[in-house]
């Protein structure tokens, strides 16, 4: 079993993140083995309650931490499997990545599950979130792409409302099982992100050059080769700044 790469509180500073910095991309950090195999197994097989899945055309999802209405989170306590075992919230806080966020740690988690061949269209996430996103991958890898708009953004145009997208990714990252990727940059605001619907990813010169090649476990990212996708579950963890406290109504 691999050890988690999570830091202890005393080394929760910029240096911890620096070693995981993705070169040539502003403020993106890739941390392999952020969670253990045991934790991964628990999260995949036991944790997300079956009745909570919402099935969409190309993935299914659960949303934890509350509902966002008009940019305000109607907050609900995160379940134990996100903040006790595994203690993901504390571990994410201890990376230091959320230091500049209002609550210093995530309060909202989207769980997505993709079968091999499924993905998510290029999109923007909206303004409710502080521009720090922590994404944990479980069960399978994915190639995560950032895209730019094909036109020059006009300052008063609403985000992605009918604007053409340049379908050649600006940057691609390989997200391996048990890894964490932290994005704290303009890549989340003013750009789009997505995952192509594929059963296999060809890496290297004949396929995708990933910007985090030297940080990943898979040799294929450096030497070239094909990775076969399986079912992937992702946890997209964020700090929603504006929270309506409804403790008195809920658990
Ligand atoms: O599965 C992922 O890593 C991406 C999920 C995502 O972009 C979203 O839920 O908005
Ligand atoms: Fe997204």
From TrEMBL:
Listed InterPro entries: AlkB-like (IPR027450), AlkB-like_sf (IPR037151), ALKBH6 (IPR032862), Oxoglu/Fe-dep_dioxygenase_dom (IPR005123)
Database matches in PROSITE patterns: FE2OG_OXY
First and last residue of the signal peptide: none
Cellular localisation: Nucleus
Major subcellular site: nucleus
Pfam families according to UniProt: 2OG-FeII_Oxy_2
Presence of keyword Metal-binding: yes
Protein name as it appears in the record: Fe2OG dioxygenase domain-containing protein
Organism: Exidia glandulosa HHB12029
